[in-house]
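Section 3.1 - Work completed
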Amino acid sequence: MPPALGRAFLDDAVAGRPLSEPPWATPADVEAAIAAAFAARRAVGAATRERRIAVLRDVADGLMRDADAFAALIAREVAKPIDAARGEVARAATTMRDAAAVAATDEGRLVPLDTVPGGAGREALVRRVPIGVVAAITPFNFPLNLVAHKVAPALATGCPVILKPAPAAARTASAFGTLVDAAVASHGLPRETFSCVAIPESGDPTPLVEDPRIRGLTFTGSEAVGWALRDRAAGKAVALELGGDAFAIVAPDASLRHAAERIAFGAFAYAGQVCISVQHVLVHASVLDAFLEVFREIVTESVVGDPMRAGVLAGPLLRDRDADRVEAWVREALDRGARLEAVGRIDASEAPAGAGWRRGRWIAPLALRDVPADTRLHGSEVFGPVVDVAAWSTIDDIERRFDASRFGLQAGVFTQDLALVRRLFATLDVGGLVVGDVPTLRLDPMPYGGMKRSGLGREGARDAFDWYTEPKTLLW
């Protein structure tokens, strides 16, 4: 089995001590985790709902008991602002409780068969049963809640789950694993119910993708990696959440200040490192100038600061290569004719000295206008604190812009026009349309996922339950 996971990372985070290296799993550890989970799959699946529900509730309670420690660890490990980190801990606890509620209410169904010849006197009982061992691969940007969204339904349904967190977020996942291990042991489930294999960037996750003993692969991360994994995961159930280039639409009847404030939050929170961060803003031509006047004011007042300080909206990007990418895409857009409408401020003691909108990994909030269609900023996910503003005049303009995008995760529309909402809901290929707010809004119980290149399947405890299970029929 993989190395034991302790809570030392939580203690170090609270005490301000340097965070030690995670217990990296070797190839032998990965093989041991797969073999153990496969051998225990029937015993895990046979655990009563009472025990599974108790495990989920215990983990939720543990998260809230150690909420401050988890928040400090998240903030220090992946530079997420501490307020957002605290919110993530609470969301993860909610996710565990939602899965417990689904496990408690799921029922089979009885299918009457006397509607067909030979069916008189017969019935079919259909139950959903766990698919078996699941591999879950998670990203750095929500190192606790996205782990919970994959582990919670596995625990609820009786699927042994092997978690491979992003290397940059392995400490948070390891601390979470401590809670799961303790709850599993406390309620008599097989210890192989859950395992965490923290693989370094130089490591090879291939067995988790290709091993036939693993029946399901659930992945959240980049578009290119996700679809490549799907192609390699032959014979498995595959769920992908791959992000996108989220749009916010501003209609002529919108409250422009409300829209501008929410769009700035949706674009710049956590330095734009959220798969539903606002990247494109489509504003009706009749109110574009008025919107930009308000939006410029808000952007210039947006500050990148120390993520450990309360009230900070955004800190640095995670890695130098991320900042390099964002800078290159912005400069490409500007070189090809985009206009820089507004620049926020960098105000942090950790940022390197210098001038301009980039200092090391720190990039100030940026608002551009009319980014050309032949640029990467126009057609790819920037995953940084950058937003592009453009005009629309007819609904056809909006639909053409969406049709040209290969993504379809979520969109937001600021309007009170019900006819416009109905038209957009009917025609836009997105997994969710948010009315009166930004596409960055996600409430954890709802089905969440994308269309087109944004992924396959849905998260959210109720909808994920069906992915982790398959129907089995008893005919008599």
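Second construct:
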Amino acid sequence: MIAEEIKKIHALLPQGVELCAVSKFHPADAVKEAYDAGQRIFGESRVQELLEKVKVLPSDIKWHFIGHLQTNKVRQLIGLTSLIESVDSIRLLELIDKESERAGVVTRVLMQLHVAREETKFGFYPEELLEYFSNRSFENLKATHICGVMGMASNTDDMSRVREDFRKIAATKEEILKIAPDLRGFDTVSMGMSGDWQIAVEEGANLVRIGTAIFGVRNY
């Protein structure tokens, strides 16, 4: 079942679009089944769960952290991820940088945008992110590479609103590149989940985060 879904999604993804299989709340053997089907990028949202899976799963897995990262968990996470997708504050970014420098590693991150209607979602408003790059504050980072942006659409059945949200996320990334054209490797737009990833790809996503369509309903 899992292997079939992985193959189905890979067949549908356009060239240049990567799949992050969202494995949070699913057991390690489910991850291994997806791995055996050729999947290498997996998304987790809890540090403890990721730590446990790292111990028992193949070492060439690229782990993406996609949940809200608490500052007191940053040190535990550094050095284990291929990408932290959910940097939602300057304080968190600076702490990741400090801990990465301390550990002697470079951590790749995405800046999380807040464009959805829900106030509960984390992230920067587009204007906050544009200001950060306008001020060239990224030049102060010593051991962190900002690779692009991540965001979620509003939780709604209105697909025109979802499309509008994705368009805003992709447009913000382009605006940042206009502000700071010398940014290197700032090329990732992570957006789109099981129910809307095809719209996300149409609007510029080159990384999609799909969980339910691969693993089924989560085991909370």
